[in-house]
Amino acid sequence: MNTRTETLDLLRESPFFEGMEREHLEHFARHAWTQTFESGENVIRQGDPATAFYVLARGKIELSFAKAGVELAAPDEETGPEMEGHTLPHIVGHRGYPVGWASLVEPHRYRATAVARERTEMLVLKRDLFEAYAKERPDFGLAFMRRVLWLIGNHLRMTRTRLVAARYGNVPQTVRALLDQNAATLSVASPLHKIPHYLENRLTLDDAHRTLELLKASGDEVERELAAQISDLLDEVWREVRIFRQLQEIYDLVAGAPPTMSPEELLRRSCEKFAELFEGTEYIIRGEENLPDEPGHIFVMNHLSNHLDNLLPNDFILTLDTHFVSSMILLKKYGEAPVRVVRKSDPGEYGHQKFYDRLGYIYVYSGYVDPTDDPRVSPEQRRRLFVDTAEEDLKNGRNIVICPEGTSTETENSPLPFKTGAFHLASNIRPEPLVVPIAVANFDKKLTRTTTVAVVHEPIRLSEHLGENVDSRALREFVNDHVYGRFQGYVREAVRLAAGQTGGPSGSRVSR
Q1: What is the pTM of this model?
Q2: Contact between 133 and 27 (Cβ < 8 Å)
């Protein structure tokens, strides 16, 4: 808080201080201060003496409660909601949320643990301040005790809400059950009744979010409280909404770009937008020291399936793993987005065509799609077109990203056997480009529920293994036995990194 006015505004917004006279709020605004907590720090810890009451100013906290006899510790994100002996962690992010109500009642010991899940600011009010002011102003003391009773009742309702969430699991069902439990006090005309229906379709999740935000600000008392509870339950859903919205914006950026914009500029802009998206997720990058100093090389990577939650309304899915490597590794290293090698869309895949055709990607052609209208074009001519296009990009100092499997699969089954096209390309171009392996994991999962990983491995110069004149059979054996064999271990290593089974932070990690 920078000023007393800001502190006063926060107290007005907090449901705990709702209805209190201005002079009471001004008294607490004069005596409050702000404390900042970094991600992972305890705000309060269950069982500790409760000496202060907190109000969330900005940021996000995770609340959890350990059953009697269970060792007290901060909730661990890796453990997730099934922590034995603990209630389901509850993430809170709405401004004005009261924390540490146990400081206001006997025996003055915190009944839960609150951990900052990002940089968080809390307004701090000492317990002694409430006690002294209640003795000085009996009118405040009466209002204060009413709010304490409200807070305890609200705490019980939130506990019940989390139990409902644990029982039903399905988000719309959970919200319906919560609304049913409050049917006696909630108006039948309340917009809250629309929320479960909005949540059943990805395209109406934004409507749910807007409705809840509106009711949190201007609904009646029952609507405000329920809207806040539902919003907290849907914290992960809102993160998914943001990601989906960003994917839509990236597609529109590319498909709707003016014809005068060059593929290179458009590719760079789309990669920058992808970088913004990935910066809001949890990821690990390792091995950046293995990147060549100068561009103009071939980067081969395993290719992971796309999660269906990312399916756009036109049935197109933006592949996350290749865009992660392009935006978070290669663009940041070389200052220029790489060129991807992609399958030429079939005539019915309009969404693919509008996107890929604008970015200057290099196409490989399936049997039913020809680069020209001439049916006499042979597979050899199609291969030659691919090699000539790729060679020009490499000689101009551009990096190329290729997924040599020719298809995608889940992390658990990756990598699939490699085709040799990328390696034939490297062996036929002079000066010879390096082949740089990058193993990825978990891009087939929901980004809000996983840690994605990309590991850059030591580059390969084919001539050092196979000589200058590469025989096709020798190349195929080298790819199958050497490259693919090692890549299987690379992907398993990436999976272990995501699970936190290996050591130090030599790469980058960003928390949600």
Answers
A1: 0.66
A2: yes
